[in-house]
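ok trying this again, last paste got cut off
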Amino acid sequence: MQYRLTPELTLLTGLLEQNPQAPSRSHAWSVSTDGSLGILLPLEAEWRTRRFGQPGIYSLGLLYTNAKQTDLYLGQSGGPGAKALEPEPAQRSDSLRIAAA
């Protein structure tokens, strides 16, 4: 939905369901919320202006969700940054290697 407050300022919003089962064939035309993780509520303000003879469109938006999200700062490691992978142990080779001198 959008609502034009003034000729230069417009508010846009929507309401979406966050549901991983939504693309399935059994959910195609269903209004059921079975399997829903929550809602998404986007909100955007759009300002159309003309400064110095040039047209411009500036947008400011936010997204609210009540679905559980992974913390992007802490992640799976529980600390800041990416989780370091453990180096794989060197593989032992029992075969005989002959080097030419």
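PB: full thing came through this time. Strands lie at 2-4, 9-13, 16-18, 38-51, 54-65.
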